[in-house]
Design a protein that fits this description.
Helices cover 31% and strands 27% of the residues. By secondary structure, the protein is an alpha+beta fold. The protein has two domains: 4-118, 2-Layer Sandwich (D-amino Acid Aminotransferase, Chain A, domain 1), CATH 3.30.470.10; 124-283, D-amino Acid Aminotransferase, Chain A, domain 2 (Alpha-Beta Barrel), CATH 3.20.10.10. The two termini are 28 Å apart. The structure holds N-(5'-phosphopyridoxyl)-D-alanine (PDD). N-(5'-phosphopyridoxyl)-D-alanine binds next to helix 6 and strand 13.
């Protein structure tokens, strides 16, 4: 069965799913995106992703390509046509195609692209053994809270991590405090049991997984703080972990090559992962 992708009103074989050479997403990274997890053929946290998409579009003054109800139908149709039970859905909206000019085009219509990809089950070793992160300077622009496709610093950082055998790179601001990973949010559990993640201001992407986990933490009566933490604090932490749509909750067991605590996944981290898995499963359970 061939893969089908959606481009501006058409469902096309993936190899024919193309946008114009003068699309502003291509020339200026003038575009926003979302990545949704698909489980049992359903979209996880769809409403949260659509709300964040709407916010990103407002922040950049890009017109929504269609109303939300119509967009939801398109997302479902792309999942259906590809018969993907477990995987990811990628959605991108650019300001459209127009002769290259920094000024916003008057006539361009936004470009909407939707693709889906099946995903093999996450390698269980990532959860059993945990992953390593390195720390790198955060060299991104001032608004990483907007989910734009301007991801070059993120790609460079992720590649640097992989080149050194690490899974992820935690980006660090000028004050020595962790902002977030290149495609994940960063968390620690302090020696006295406080769960810490940076506050969702302009310095990080307000992760949907981060948000979901914060709600679950509240229900567990755990102590949590949304504040910056330094690299030194992270290295002295009892536990560390990362969150994202594609990784859910993953234990971080080393930072810059030094083990976090005893170098094994933390017990609280594993409990949070189980809680999060159950939260996802409940969303997509057959009625
Ligand atoms: N990345 N921080 C950054 C910089 C991200 O790009 C992402 C998501 C996250 C986690 O957000 P969420 O929990 O909503 O996935 C944090 C996606 C998955 C990606 O670019 O593939």
């Amino acid at each position: 069965m061939s893969r089908i992708s959606y481009v501006n009103g058409r469902y096309l074989p993936h190899r024919d799913a193309l946008v114009h050479v003068e699309d502003r997403g291509f020339q200026f990274a003038d575009a926003v995106y979302e990545v949704f997890a698909i489980r049992r053929g359903g979209l996880v946290d769809e409403a949260l992703h659509l709300a964040r998409l709407a916010r990103s579009l407002v922040e950049l003054r890009i017109a929504p390509p269609m109303g939300e109800a119509a967009l939801k139908l398109v997302l479902r149709e792309v999942v259906r046509r590809n018969r993907v039970a477990n995987g990811t859905l990628y959605l991108q909206v650019s300001r459209g195609a127009a002769p290259r000019d920094f000024v916003f085009p008057k006539a361009a219509r936004p470009t909407l692209v939707v693709t889906v990809r099946p995903q093999r089950r996450q390698d269980p070793r990532l959860l059993e053994e945990g992953v390593g992160v390195i720390t790198i300077p955060d060299i991104r622009w001032g608004r990483p809270d907007i989910k734009t496709v301007g991801l070059l610093p993120n790609a460079l950082g992720k590649q640097q991590a992989r080149d050194t055998g690490a899974f992820e790179a935690w980006q660090v601001d000028r004050d020595g405090r962790v902002t977030e990973g290149t495609s994940t949010n960063a968390w620690i559990v302090t020696a006295d049991g406080e769960v810490v993640t940076r506050q969702a201001d302009h310095s990080i992407l307000n992760g949907v997984t981060r948000y979901g986990l914060l709600q679950l933490l509240g229900g567990e009566g755990l102590r949590l703080a949304e504040r910056p933490f330094s690299v030194a604090e992270a290295k002295a932490a009892r536990e560390a972990f990362l969150t994202s749509t594609t990784n859910f909750v993953l234990p971080v067991v080393s930072i810059d090559g030094a083990p976090v605590a005893n170098g094994h996944p933390g017990t609280l981290t594993l409990r949070l992962r189980a809680l999060y898995d159950a939260y996802v499963a409940a969303q997509v359970a057959a009625p």
